């Protein structure tokens, strides 16, 4: 029995939420970490936590079938959404000590915690994330005649300002989006890049 479960936040679905700081303070440990993302994501810019077991979301019930139902399991994914679904599924299967990493690998990277990146990725700056977002928005939005597309101003590339813009775009898609799938992909990509971005001059 790992103390992390006792200190985690109960969720109505029967599992418990842990934040990245709580999990990082426990590693390495006897916890079973299960990353439910697809294989390609583990090698992506967000990387993965050392010591994970990989089980894409659809395969989780088969992977855990023979595990003791009192195993201390922490599920993680990109943002915490897929792992929450997996956690709910484990509770339904009778697991009693199930935890979900709140915020997933986005939060883990934002907190500058250790990450395994098998494929080297050059980490962007906040300025390059801002420029990529603005460029992508100009390409994604159809401007009215004789006008450029209306996009939120992001003059200072701070993490907080960029996060606020991405959250606003996620909450209310601008008028004139030509390709919804491409727009959603742009936001997702910028969120990933922002999680690992460095300020100018930061190593």
Summary keywords:
203 residues; single chain; alpha/beta; elongated; 9 helices
Query: Total number of helical segments?
Result: 9
First-last Cα distance: 38 Å
Strand order of the largest sheet: 1-2-6-5-3-4
What sequence of helices (H) and strands (E) makes up the elements?
Answer: HEEHEHEHEHEHHHH
Average pLDDT rating? 90
**Oligomer description:** single chain
The general outline is elongated
Residue ranges: pLDDT <50 for 5 or more in a row?
none
User: Portion of residues in helices?
Assistant: 40-55%
Largest sheet geometry: 6 strands, mixed
Report what the structure shows.
This protein is α/β, with parallel strands linked by helices and 203 residues long. The chain has nine helices and six strands; from the N terminus they run H-E-E-H-E-H-E-H-E-H-E-H-H-H-H. The protein has helices at 3-7, 20-26, 39-42, 60-63, 81-92, 104-110, 126-140, 159-171, 180-196; strands at 9-10, 16-18, 32-35, 53-54, 73-76, 98-101. It has a six-stranded mixed sheet with strand order 1-2-6-5-3-4.
């Amino acid at each position: 029995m790992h103390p992390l479960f006792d200190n985690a936040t109960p969720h109505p679905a029967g599992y418990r939420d842990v934040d990245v700081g709580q999990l990082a303070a426990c590693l390495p440990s006897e916890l079973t970490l299960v990353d439910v993302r697809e294989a390609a994501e583990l090698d992506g810019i967000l990387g993965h936590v050392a010591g994970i077991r990989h089980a894409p979301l659809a395969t989780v019930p088969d992977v855990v079938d023979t595990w003791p139902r009192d195993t201390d399991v922490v599920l993680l994914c990109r943002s915490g959404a897929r792992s929450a679904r997996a956690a709910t599924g484990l509770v339904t299967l009778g697991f009693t000590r199930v935890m979900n990493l709140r915020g997933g690998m986005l939060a883990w990277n934002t907190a500058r915690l250790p990450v395994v990146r098998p494929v080297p990725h050059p980490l962007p700056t906040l300025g390059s994330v801002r420029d990529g977002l603005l460029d992508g928005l100009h390409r994604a939005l159809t401007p009215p005649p004789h006008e450029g597309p209306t996009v939120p101003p992001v003059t200072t590339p701070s993490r907080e300002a960029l996060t606020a813009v991405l959250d606003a775009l996620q909450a209310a898609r601008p008028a004139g989006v030509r390709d919804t799938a491409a727009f959603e992909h742009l936001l997702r990509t910028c969120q990933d890049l922002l999680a690992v971005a460095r300020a100018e001059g930061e190593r």
